[in-house]
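hiii, so i know i said id send this last week but things got crazy w the move. better late than never?? heres the sequnce for the chain we talked about at the cafe, plus the structure i predicted for it. fair warning i was half asleep when i ran it
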Amino acid sequence: MHFTDQIGHSIHLPQPPQRIVSLVPSQTELLFHLGLGAKVVGLTKFCIHPQPDCKAKQRVGGTKQVSLEKIAALRPDLIIANKEENDRQTVEALQQQYPVWTSDIETLEDALAMIASIGQLTQKEPEAGQLNDAIRTAFESLKIEGQETRAAYMIWYKPWMAVGSGTFIHELLRLAGFINVLEHKTRYPILTLEELAAAKPAVVLLSSEPFPFKQRHIDEVKKFCPMADVRLVDGEMFSWYGSRLLLAAPYFVNLRNEISCSLNH
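okay and structure toks below
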């Protein structure tokens, strides 16, 4: 059968894939959720969920630096990639030898479409449909009561880097009831803490990934944004676009409640 991925690339699968290599952590977790764990033969060193299932699989490198030799040894009949998380030249090189299905995700609807497509690729359409229904139901529960909260979401240190618009994290911030004070910036703007303070966020969210922020970083931001609620958040909930979305909606409800209590005291 012929399939077209989210970047417009077409692949042909003569039969359902039996040897899958995933180059994207959130999509690796999705494959296991759909019951395809036995068919996953290779993944990246950042593919950590579900544990301990991922530990038994062959690592093929990171998301940006992949070993073509290790992939070749695994003889994959399907490779799952992502436009942003994987290196373009690597993906294009793999496309010359294997069926490579690449996602491109900026919105929740993009994520749901990706899940449905992987269900089609792997003959797991009922499971993918059930998952999407559950995710939709979970996000419909995120009713925003009152004013949305002005927030900045930080992902890197030295230099400080935040999240702008046109990103999946920006979309989830919006759905979770936050106004991204840096949405007018580039997708991942570099800025000083003086510039962050000038944006007047009520909340500064320091992500657990890709940079593992700690208490000392909270203290540093607090010097410039003394009135803001500055806190560590689980980056997987804001950036993983597979089955982890099931956990994201209730996480956002709890986070919003905690922030509301903090700001009102």
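btw The chain has two domains: 2-139, 149-263. thought thatd interest u
miss u guys!!
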